[in-house]
Design goal:
This protein is α/β, with parallel strands linked by helices. The protein folds into four domains: 1-68, no CATH class; 73-288, Leucine Aminopeptidase, subunit E, domain 1; 292-330 and 384-427 and 497-542 and 549-590, Rossmann fold (3-Layer(aba) Sandwich); 339-381 and 428-485, SIR2/SIRT2 'Small Domain'. The protein has helices spanning 2-16, 23-26, 31-44, 53-67, 126-134, 136-149, 188-205, 232-249, 265-279, 293-297, 301-312, 322-327, 335-341, 365-380, 386-396, 412-415, 448-454, 497-509, 532-540, 561-565, 576-585; strands at 73-74, 80-83, 90-95, 101-102, 106-111, 159-162, 170-175, 217-220, 257-262, 315-320, 402-406, 423-424, 428-435, 444-446, 481-485, 516-521, 546-552, 569-573. Strand 2 (80-83) and strand 3 (90-95) form a beta hairpin. It is globular, with a radius of gyration of 26 Å.
Amino acid sequence: MAVAKLSSVLQYLLAENQYQHLFHHLAHQDIWIQLQTLQRLLCIRPPHPPLPESIQNGIDTILQYQQSHKLLTPSETIRPILSIPNTPTSLGLWKGDITTLTNITAIVNAANSQLLGCFQPSHRCIDNVIHSAVGPRLREACDAIMQEQRDPEPVGSVKVTPGFNLPAEYVLHTVGPQMRGKEGEPTAEQKERLASCYRSCLDAMEGLPPLADGRKVIAFCCISTGLFAFPPELAVDIAVDTVVEWCRGHPETSVTDVIFDVFAEGDWGLYEKKLKGLKSRYSPVQKSLPPSLQDIHTQHPSILKAQQWIKEADTLIISAGAGLSAATGLDYTSPALFEKYFPAFLPLGLNRLYDVFGFQEWDSPAQKWGYYFNHLNMVKTWPKSSVYAALQRLTQHFESRYFIRTSNADGFFVANGFDEDRITMPQGQYRYLQCFAKCRRDAVFLSEPFLTAALPYLDPGTQCLTDTSKIPRCEYCGGELTLCVRGGDYFNPIRFLPQEKLYKAFVEDTARSSNTVILELGAGMNTPVVLRWHDEVLVRESEGNIRMIRAGIGAAGCAPWDMEERNEAVGIEGGLDHVLDVLIDSPSSQP
């Protein structure tokens, strides 16, 4: 049903924008591309004219189907950090997507003064995140408020709407103060208006009904710290101090739990420091231990189906993308990781590991190789991970009837003890350097001797290579070497072809003739042809012998809906460290 609804909704919205000629092409695209197109069309659509109810219902079906694949976080599993004396209220801290919190009274949306959501699809503001998860009913509800109000929403006040397709019962919309340009320190008025946002939301909570268990729970996002540019550290101080002050001034409040939700690593550190600083002044939490998130997610329908498929399978293919490395902490999209390991390269405009791909604006070869050698050393010394340990326990059930195909060049499978004869890495590996000019087919060399020779000559401040004689050169032509990783026509795959051949033979001789499950982990849309679409083709051509479990965040957890309807695939959206913990190590997963 969800496939048909998605098709009809996209047809309507494309025709409304006079793009109906694109539908034929879009219908053959990856399911994630179709969903992203839907999100963009809804983001830019004004509330008038209202959508036909049949289209609204179709959108509801689509969003609810998407949500059914997510491993939601019940509020009661978030451990409180402190209790405010003489009140029923506890404060907690959580990092994640605020739209995936369940068993919660209300989440807070940092809105703009028009209160209609963000109309820029590229913005990753919380306003966009929440409206995308809820759908157009939220914009219509906000529009009804604004039509009656007739004026922009005042800074520091609040408006309440239903949560509609969210797990949360309500959404509290509040407009924080906005810093413009280089204003410097916020004024006293701006600080007071930010504090007013928190007070207004807590006031509004008093008028909302409690949950079935009697609790009343609110989750605050980081108000004004994104595009509104309020200094994060000051915003955290105001947020926590205002909430504590309000609760102490309302000892009979019905609000039992306040959760500060963050998405960025930096914000987590600020809140953690602030709340820990208050623990010595306020009561320790007296509540019993929260229920286990693993126990709750063990009963998720997608998890149960995936566990059953694994139990029934004779053969296993692990298909691992960048999301698996990210689950160990090696996240190529993380600014915090880049700043920690490569601070000297920030002035070049590099902020993430992904930014270095194709980068040519190095000041010198010594700087370039300083980066490469620091990167190789980081990967080489990366600690072993429980994520790979869980996968190892899984493969033991299949003995020799498994194979691993990964687009990751980090070599973490081998580093974590997997048999390299059962791994293929078609995108290359940091273990090797190659002649950039490909002067000979066999001009591929182990990187470790070059790294060992260069490490004493890496300046800890500039992170540059101080001895240019340590720049790797081809022993055949004398030309410069480069990482043996696919990044252009220069890539030399010679060292990886034998394992790719073994993998293909494994698929033909074993996987196609047995009950096989593909466990696809963290394979999103960066290079979908390597893993994602390859795995889908294997399933579609298998005549029922191969099924796929696709797990990860965002696109990496979204399986084709038509394949799900035919029971050929299942998608699980969640962090892989937790997904694998539930999928492999929970009691219900044991044979």
